[in-house]
Amino acid sequence: MSAASCRLTEDQFLCSICLDVFTDPVSTPCGHNFCKTCITQHWDVKVPYKCPNCNDVFNTRPELRVNTFISEMAAQFRQSAQQKASSSSSEQQVSKPGEVPCDVCTGTKLKALKSCLVCLASYCETHLEPHLTMSGLKRHQLIDPVENLEGRMCEKHDKLLELFCKTDQMCVCMLCTVLDHKTHDVVPLKEEYEGKKAELGKTEAETQEMIQKRRLKIQEIKRSVELSNQNADREIAEGVQVFTALMESVERSQAELVHTIKEKLRKTEKQAEGFIKELEQEISELEKRSSEVEQLSRSEDHLHLLQSFTSLNAAPPTKDWTEVSVCPPSYEGRAVNQLEETLSQQMKKPFEAELKRVQQHEVDVTLDPDTAHPNLILSDDGKQVHLSIVRKNLPDTPERFDTCSIVLAKQSFSSGRFYYEVQVKGKTDWDLGVARESINRKGKITANLQNGYWRICLRNKSDYTANASPSVRLSLKSQPEKVGVFVDYEEGLVSFYDVDAAALIYSFTGCSFTEKLHPYFSRSLNNGGKNSAPLIISPVNHTE
Cβ neighbours of residue 451 under 8 Å, at least 6 residues apart? Predict the structure, then answer.
């Protein structure tokens, strides 16, 4: 038999019931052929007796006899097909663990190329051919090979799952829609598939965006570490330049300064490494999820996508990195301050450099009239505050101080560094610093660290105090006429400077800030007119 004749008669040697080569072929009165066992079993359960191909109905069950001619031809075809399968099996892939095997192959199972949703079977290249050539089988729905095709049948009604119940979020068969899901919102499987696939696309896009944001955050952290290194190098160089000219005691202080700076840099780098490691872990988890979403979104198997959609792993827990940053550590006000009494002249230069550095963090500060005590008078530009003996009639709002002559700035800060300067010239009493936003503003107030104040104050023209715990009396060589206030929120540092003398007055270190900070001002008492000069928020003079 030639290859051409074999090709022309292949369809005629396949039973339309079992889809395999005829075994004991018999002919019905209408002229169609079937395996004797197949048609016999079909008529055993189907009444009346009809031809499975043309649906002709027979009044009585036809007597069937084996068609010897077709039987011989089928035998030849079977032999030819086996030889063909044998010769091509080496070219086809043998099914490996995890791959879907062909359901028709006997002996060595080849890898299935497609699964049929009508036949509920998977086929290798050879056994798939009838579905590609026979007109009746061409109408069957083929999908990429999947296991457990029985799972695509309704367990209750043994019919194909081809609809989706939106009410119960489950796949159902046609019979389900007229019984258990009669009043539910039911749509074709394909319609729900398209919707879920669109959701997967959106999820994938969001995941990719999250990955990109974290990559950008890594770059930001790395840039911060580079800046930290530059600052550290500069600080070390300046420290070395100053301390190498001093006595042996100064050299010990130099080593302490270098150690402090390096330790802060180490902590900054360690913090950055922790953030980067956490970000990379999140990226790994997100990329894994992205891969799963992408793989599922490429599936053309409606049922598989819908059944897998609800079981798709929830998005991995991630941190909101928007406010996370690594700020270069502050190096102001450390070992140099400890040598102030014995090295005041030698340390003049580094304090000048230190003041210049903190002045780079200047912010525009204005007084908030809604917080001002009724005896305080603010200038129109919000830069000056006077004390009046006349109490103004103002609404007693929760923001306003009603007993202590205090006013806060409008501006608040919850991160980073900021610096401002206040002129105190001619005053005998004043308070300056920062305060938590949640401080008590009614009645008698104790402005200490425990209550959320970080301040220094002047009393009786010469008594300077820092409200540390316990309070620290400050010994100053000269009376400051302009005071600079510097805050490093992350470092927990509040420093006060005599601007004209370029000297550090006092530093609060190791502070723990957990909420917004407002610049804080108190005019104190008028002191018989001796303290009438205003507090003035001054612009910073950036000298070379």
Answer: 439, 440, 445
pTM: 0.45
First to last CA, the chain: 104
Edge-first strand listing for the sheet containing 142-143: 121-123, 114-116, 142-143
Region at 36 (left for phi over 0; alpha for psi -120 to 50; beta for the rest): alpha
User: Do the beta carbons of residue 468 and residue 455 sit within 8 Å?
Assistant: no
CA distances from 20 to 11, 15, 114 (A): 10, 6, 17
List Cβ neighbours of 528 (8 Å cut-off, separation of 6 or more). Answer: none
Judge whether 523 and 467 are in contact, CB under 8 Å: no
Q: What is the DSSP string of 446-504?
A: --STTTTEEEEEEETTTEEEE--SS-EEE--SS--SEEEEEEETTTTEEEEEETTTTEE
pLDDT mean values, one per 10 residues, the chain (544 residues): 45 77 86 87 78 84 83 77 57 74 84 84 87 83 80 80 90 87 89 91 93 92 85 80 68 74 88 90 87 85 81 75 80 57 60 85 95 93 89 90 92 94 92 94 89 92 89 89 95 93 91 94 76 90 68
Amino acid at position 26, single letter: V
